[in-house]
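Q: Given only this backbone (349 positions), what sequence would you predict?
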């Protein structure tokens, strides 16, 4: 006899709570609990729990750290209802709760998303660590932390972010620092988080020129631990790297690694905190998340419509800033219609 719960999606680390009718613990005697991916009876999945000698408690909380689509309560033992009557297996449960998270989510209320790099996007509900390890395909040297999925050494070309799952348009841009340092400026956008560019002096700045106006959805910045803490400002501009013409994207006393933005710009300027006439900035990586103006999609591998005026929407490729002259439509696929008029003049003597 079995009770089968189809939980539709894979769950991880379920905690199962079972409650039987009072005084009928004998009907639970010898039961087993499985997590499986099929509804086969007898179950052929993972055995979470098997009742031992003696009558079980009628209310139980059973931890079971396993992925599966089905939770099966299975009993093949039967019970003596009285000295003269033996019944086969009977399932008589009053309450069953399955605590866990659906595939790709974790947290006390499953409010967080598992890291992209977790294999099959499966992670443990308690801490978000990967169940099967991590996929290092975009990680530098093919190295990622098997628990957190973070690319520990940095990213391969044109990738950025903790998991190197974002396209980095800064990798194709120009970078420089003021005042000029003795260490190569390009170490800040090479994808390697263990190599840093260093500047020391008054009025320190770091600049990125994307070469063209681009739609940007995020900024990823890694500073060396020795960089002075304090006030940090990030500016964006379409016309020059002059701060007075820029828009403030971030301004605060703490510089987060990930800065979410929705902006269109060409130039980015980072101004670190100032505590004295001489400031030291050690910047290990700066990634600008978006796509080149001519492409869109999660990996920037789809070409924008050729008649867009400016970059297209990163998600759906719609021409956000209109069309080139003579074209109309969301994707500027319709040519302009021209109306020609013919005038006839009739002369009479």
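A: Predicted residues:
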């Amino acid at each position: 006899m079995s009770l089968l719960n189809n939980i539709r999606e894979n769950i991880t680390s379920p905690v199962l709570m079972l409650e039987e009718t009072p005084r009928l613990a004998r009907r639970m005697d010898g039961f087993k609990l499985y997590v499986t991916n099929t509804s086969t009876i007898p179950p052929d999945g993972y055995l979470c729990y098997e009742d031992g000698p003696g009558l079980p408690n009628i209310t139980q909380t059973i931890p079971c750290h396993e992925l599966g689509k089905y939770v099966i309560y299975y009993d093949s033992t039967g019970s003596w209802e009285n000295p003269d009557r033996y019944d086969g297996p009977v399932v008589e449960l009053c309450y069953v709760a399955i605590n866990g998270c659906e595939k790709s989510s974790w947290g006390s209320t499953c409010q967080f998303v598992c890291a992209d790099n977790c294999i099959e996007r499966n992670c443990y509900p308690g801490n978000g660590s990967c169940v099967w390890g991590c996929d290092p395909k975009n990680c530098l040297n093919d190295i990622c932390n098997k628990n957190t999925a973070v690319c520990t050494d940095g990213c391969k070309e044109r990738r950025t972010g903790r998991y190197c799952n974002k396209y980095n348009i800064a990798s194709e841009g120009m970078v420089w620092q003021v005042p000029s340092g003795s260490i190569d400026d390009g170490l800040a956008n090479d994808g390697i988080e263990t190599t840093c560019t260093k500047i020391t002096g008054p009025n320190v700045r770091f600049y990125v020129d994307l070469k063209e106006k681009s739609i940007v959805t995020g900024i990823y910045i890694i500073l060396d631990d020795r960089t002075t803490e304090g006030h940090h400002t990030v500016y964006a501009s379409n016309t020059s790297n002059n701060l007075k013409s820029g828009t403030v994207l971030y301004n605060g006393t703490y510089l987060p690694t990930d800065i979410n933005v929705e902006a269109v710009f060409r130039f980015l300027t980072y101004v670190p905190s100032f505590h004295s006439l001489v400031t030291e900035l050690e910047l290990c990586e700066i990634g600008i998340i978006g796509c080149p103006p001519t492409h869109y999609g999660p990996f920037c591998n789809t070409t924008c419509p050729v008649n867009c005026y400016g970059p297209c929407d990163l998600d759906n490729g719609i021409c956000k800033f209109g069309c080139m002259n003579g074209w109309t439509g969301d994707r500027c696929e319709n040519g302009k219609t021209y109306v020609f008029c013919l005038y006839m003049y009739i002369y009479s003597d």
